[in-house]
Amino acid sequence: MGVSGGGGEKMNAEEAMKKFQDNGYEAWLSSRNAGVKNRVERKTLWVKVERDSIREAAEFLKNMADEYPHFSIISCSDEGEYMCLNYHFTLSYARRLQEFIVTLKVDVPKDDLRIDSIADIFPAIIYSEREIKEMAGVEFNGIPDDRHMFLTKDFPSGVYPWRRDETAPKETNKLYERWKNGA
Amino acid sequence: MAHEYELSIGPIHPALKEPIMIRVKVEGEEIVDVDVIASQNHRGIEWLGMNRNNAIQSIYLAERVCGICNFCHPSCLVMAVEEIADIEVPERAQYIRVIQGELERIHSHLLWAGVAAHELGFDTLLHYVWMVREKVMDVLELVNGNRVTKSIIMYGGVRRDIKEEHVEHIRKMLDYYRNAFSKLAKFFLEDKTMEKRTREIGILTERDAIELAAVGPTARASGIKKDVRQDFPYFAYPDFDIHAITPDELTGYTVGDVYDRIVVRLLEVKQSIDIIEEALNEMPSGEIIAEKKLVKLMAKIKASEGEAVARYEAPRGEDIHYVKLKKGFEPLYSWKVRAPTYINILSWRPMLVGYQIADIPIIAASIDPCMSCTNRIAVVKDGKERIFTSDYFHELSVKKTRRLMK
């Protein structure tokens, strides 16, 4: 399609996996069936990306297939020593039964919570990077706009709702705790 | 040189009704720049699902992400958990899920059509469309016992069957909408004023739609044939011959303006009618849920570990939920909800720039924004911004009760 990016060829999930593997990435597929009379398999491609090579991986993904990757969301998970960021994209959209999900998985260590912004490569990612910054405390190097996205301006600094360590909000569960204790 | 002024629409504004702030820079009447301040109140739904609730309670929480799409979000969550815990859904339940999803699309698109008419100052049409919409609401009430927040989906199936006596009512509703369609199309697409206010207004080019990752009717109205039900189907959707609807099907060409977004939604109502009819004809008999005992189900989910991404074509566009479960951990270990408006508000900028202030309400409404699924309120009084806490509201509430008791 016409946008800068997507200059490659049409590919399915297996071919995309091979392409990532040939370029030194660890990649694997998961799948799930849908349909009753017409059973189809829907596939998700997971790709492990080192923190410092997120920009290369994003560029690689952008130019790999014959269409511009559709960005969905960044999700994150607190894994103790590090935060795992999942960049969810889809490829082969607008084609019946052919779309698949591509998720780039990046571990960012908690003692150095930074990663390069890829908002210049995929402009749609900006809201998500702002959200991860306020919710998980991950800094994005070179982010064009680093204002709060959803949280209030007076939200205490150093408190991150999506973390499971000492920075997680502590006071928020008061109502529930009271209810649970029968008060 | 003309002076540039900044105009704030929101956080609460009569033209938008939901809490979001659009800050536009204008030169005379023309919009030159747009900044969206995605409100200042966060309900913390994901946090609740990750800390307070167990996985079953989170279904009902997900239902409250948005009142209108109260089937989409729980469906997305349920699909992700079913994938991780490897729960197979009975065939009949897959068909019931399709019917429920399409009933929701009909009511949501009609609700939007009413709002769009209202934004243009055409309130007679608003009342007419919402009257028409009541038909599907009646059916929803009949089948589910509730008009909204129907609590119908469950891990491994659905909670209520569509019975023989319901089918007759649903078929009558389908006939009613087939007859109403030509009238609605005439009011929305042939009316001179409607056309003047929506044609060539708020254009989103195909290129911008791709780059800003637009989803749903917003993307399709710009000519991208993208629909999760067609590309990455779920439930029983692979059984149906679903194609993504673009405006050229009706008008012969695609402009990507507000008018085209109306066309797409109207055609999708028609498509939903056909899907429901086919589903009623083809629906297999059998069980509607894989595991009836909730304690057993809960134990199974608690013993599961893994991660999954689920996607669902909601009336406004694609919903996507990421879920991670950890063995022995009762709430969802990680949960990310992405509602369609989250990504579609990025398209407001290219849609608004170059148009007039008076076009803001209809352009903003044309993506069918749903703030409750995107966010989450600042109160501005006498030019000062104040943030109210729940404790403050609680205090106010207690005071009012005391006053009433006197």
* Count of beta strands of chain B: 10
Number of strands of chain A: 7
- Please identify, by name, the CATH architecture of chain A: 2-Layer Sandwich
Return the string of H and E elements of chain A. Answer: HEEHEEEEHEH
Determine the CATH topology of chain A: Beta Polymerase, domain 2
Portion in beta strands of chain A: 25-35%
Nearest-integer average pLDDT of chain A: 90
The CATH class designation of chain A is Alpha Beta
Overall geometric form of chain B: globular
Query: What is the end-to-end distance of chain B?
Result: 63 Å
* Low-confidence segments of chain A: none
CATH superfamily grouping of chain A: NADH:ubiquinone oxidoreductase Nqo5 subunit
Residue share in helices of chain A?
Answer: 10-25%
- Structure annotation, total helices of chain B: 18
- Helices and strands of chain B, in order, run as EEEHHHHHEEHHHHHHHHEEEHHHHEEH
Instruction: Give the fraction of residues assigned to helices of chain B.
Output: 40-55%
Radius of gyration of chain A over alpha carbons?
Answer: 19 Å
Largest sheet of chain A: 5 strands, mixed
What is the CATH T-level topology of the domain at 88-290 in chain B? Answer: Cytochrome-c3 Hydrogenase, chain B
Structural class of chain A: alpha/beta
The CATH homologous superfamily of the domain at 88-290 in chain B: Cytochrome-c3 Hydrogenase, chain B
Q: Can you tell me about this structure?
A:
The complex is a heterodimer of chains A (183) and B (406). By secondary structure, chain A is of the alpha/beta class. In chain A, 21% of the residues lie in helices and 30% in strands. Chain A is built from four helices and seven strands, in the order H-E-E-H-E-E-E-E-H-E-H. Chain A has a five-stranded mixed beta sheet with strand order 1-2-5-4-3, covered by helices on one side. Chain A is globular, with a radius of gyration of 19 Å. About 3% of the residues of chain B have low confidence. Among the domains of chain B are: 79 residues, no CATH class; 203 residues, Cytochrome-c3 Hydrogenase, chain B (Orthogonal Bundle). Chain B starts with a strand and ends with a helix. Chain B is built from 18 helices and ten strands. The interface between A and B is large, with 55 and 59 residues.
